[in-house]
Structure formats: structure tokens, C-alpha cells
Amino acid sequence: MARQRTLTIEQEFVERHPSSRAQYERALKDFPSGVTHDVRYLKPFPIYVERAAGCKKWDLDGNELIDYTMGHGALLLGHAHPQIVEAVAAQVRRGTHYGAGHELELEWAERIRELKPSCERVKFTASGTEATLMAMRLARAYTGREKILKFAGHFHGWHDYAIPGEKLPFTQEESPGIPRAVFETVVVAPVNDLDFVDRRLAEGDVAAVILEPSGASWASIPLPEGFLQRLREITQRHQTLLIFDEVITGFRWSPGGAQRLAGVTPDLTTMAKIVAGGLPGGALGGRADIMSLLEFRDDPDWNARHRVSHPGTFNANPLSAAAGCACLQLVADPGVQQHADAMASRLRRGFNQVLVQQSIPGFVWGESSVFHIALGHTCANQRGDDIRVPEGVTPEVLKAGMSPRLALALHQAMINEGVDLFHGGGLLSAAHTPEDIDRTIEAFDRSIRRMKDEGLFEQV
Predict the structure, then answer these.
(1) What is the domain range of residue 138?
(2) E strand residue ranges, 240-333
(3) Are residues 201 and 280 both part of a single domain?
(4) At which of 303, 332, 361 does a domain end?
(5) What are the φ and ψ backbone dihedral angles of 85, each rounded to 5 degrees?
(6) Could you tell me if 374 and 457 are in contact, meaning their C-beta atoms sit under 8 angstroms apart?
(7) Please, are residues 270 and 245 in contact by the beta-carbon 8 Å criterion?
(8) How many domains are there within the chain?
(9) Sheet strands side by side (includes 121-125)
(10) Residue 235 lies in a domain
């Protein structure tokens, strides 16, 4: 006979993680809300990790977790990949910051250019947020126009120009700490509305269109078939630059990113996460004539009035360069992406079968090696199979995924079962195995049953 549970999901979570709770109480004295990244905030406290390897990590209380945060998408090869560890360990003994050029930065750029031919020239940054900020600035300088067009729901970092239209409601016209004038320079296009884009670009004041080529928030709101091809035609017709934000899709969707899969060449590409092998670092690549605005010339007027400046203490630092070179050498093999994609498809199918079998309103969807979970909602094509594009679901539901109450309960329940999700879904790696996926599906099945037993779906 199965042992009757006496603890709720949250009570078990607290009981299993006393060391994480103690560390969180300590963190509250140092950090606002006790966290160093908004997504890591979790009630009643987040878990604290002691070590990680492959697709697993272990918290301070020794609990093993199959990981689907994967360094917020940076770890396509898994945690502590031996070749990356070796490259970084060798470099740290040679120095972490030279304040000068070095050979690894050249190799790093060459590997990017080989995988992404659209990147005729490259500049390194310290993060993806910096990369999208630089792309927007270059676009405005190149075209002489001030406005940037972005799509509702797409995430491009946390700088001021990336905020409009990212969160629900997409029409929000203010955000704490951001001047109203910034919002006036950003045009937010309705979700996947290319007719709006065509009409708006005709006004001639938009420097560039920026988007995630996966669709908003790494394919949570998928793009229609042919969307990128038509967008490229529209931007070229209106002499507007096209920026692909490949911070997540770059090297994950394929060795050459989403642009290689779609056969669409952007003018500028932003990169981070995988590009730096899981260490801090990002890059911007693009057309040589646009990137030339960053050049010094033997012309004081050009340098003072026209050149786009770009300092940055940790740009192309040797440690990130070492990790990036090692990582890009490995992910150039398409088998890496194919394995992670296959594991993600197996997981999405298994999760959907659980929801159908338990008669729970919900669906799981995604593409490439990512997945998203929506509980409390239905879609027309939920039949217990892999889903790329949910049918009959609003963009608002796809962006939100589920209510905060269900999201919290699912996150806690899955951690209790030995699985750590990320932001209502997750990202996979080449280190995940079929056995890991099957264990995760079993954990999801038990978690949904517990949520059902606690009446969490009764108010849906």
C-alpha cells in the first residue's frame, strides 16, 4: 500500500531544503528579495546549488536535480563539460585580463564568422543585453533614424530600449525608472503582425526591426510559416535594418542559429550564452559597412562626431574567449543540436500524454531544444503529442503560460521530485539522456497528481 502523504507540496519543499532556507535568510540581508536574477525568485525561498555536472545539479542538502535551467540557456553542452573546464583552467593560469589584445579573441571571432556568415565583422560584449543595446545604437547611427521597432512579447535584455512591449500587457507605456521619452523611440508591433510592420516602416523613421527569430521568448509565441522571409523582404523594401536577437537561438537551433535554418540573412546578429561557453560574454556581428561605424580613422572629426564608441572592461576577456572557443568548436557538430532537439521532443510528447491521461487542462509546446508549459488552458491540437504551434490559444496565454499559483506549485512539486524547471518550461542540453527524460516525465506525472489532489485545478 502506498504511503499516505501528510505534507502539502510546499511543506515538503520546505522540509527537504533546510540549508537553502538558511542561505536565503542570509541573502535577504544582502540582495533585494534575496536574489541576484529576477527569474530565480521563488516562494518561500529558492534552492541553493553546491555543484553541477552534465544535466544534473546538487543542492546544499544533497538533493539531486535534473536541470532544465541549463544556465538560463547558456549550457547546450551541459554543466562542467570537460573540454570547456580544461580550456578555462589552462587559461586562468595564464591570466584573466591582459588589458590588451590576445590570440584567443581572434580565434573566437573566426569561429563565429565561420558558423554565421552574416557576421562579416564582430564585436564582443559582456552580455546579451549589451549586445542588443549596441545593435540598436549602430542601427540608429547607420540610418540616421531614431526609432526601433520590436514585436510584442519578445525579450531583448533589460536595458531601457528593450523593455517596451515585453511583458503583459503588451500595450503598457511606462516602466519604473525609464523616461517616457525612451518609450517614444520604440515602436511595438502587435504579435506577428507583418501588415502593421509594412505600414509603419513606410513612414521612414524606423532604423531597425529587432526580434527573436524563434518567436517571442524563445518560441513561446511561435512565428507563422514564412514569417522571417516576408519580414526580410519588407525591411529591405523600406531600407530598414533587420536585427536577429540570437542570444538563445544562436548555436542552439542549429550550429549557425535560427538564421541558417530559415535561410534568412539579417543585417545584424546579437549573441550571448552559448557563444561564451557558459561564461559571461556576448557578441554583435553583422555587415561590414554597418560595423565600420565602430572603426577609428585618421580623421579627428569622424572619431569625435560619427564613430560609435564601444568600451567595456571585460569585452573578449581571455577566460570567456577560452570557453567560447572550446564550446563553438564542439557545437559546430550538428549532432549536438539534433540530440538535444530529440530529447526535447520526447519530453514535450511525454508531458502532453500525462496531461491527457489525467484529464488536466494544459499543454506543452516548443521547438528545437526548448519547451513551455501552460496549465489551466486548452488548445485545439492537444492530443498527447509533440506540439510546436498551439492552436486556438491567444498570445497572452502563450506568454503567461499559467497562473502564478499553478506555476509556483508546479515548480515546487517538480523540485520535490528531483527536477528543476526554468520560467514555466525549460531548455535541454546534449547531456540529457532518454533515461533522464523518462525520469522527468514520471516526475511530472507525480507532480500533476499531487497538484490535482490538493485541489489546485478546481478553480481553473
Answers:
(1) 82-332
(2) 241-245, 268-272, 282-286
(3) yes
(4) 332
(5) -60, -45
(6) no
(7) yes
(8) 2
(9) 121-125, 282-286, 268-272, 241-245, 206-211, 147-151, 186-189
(10) yes
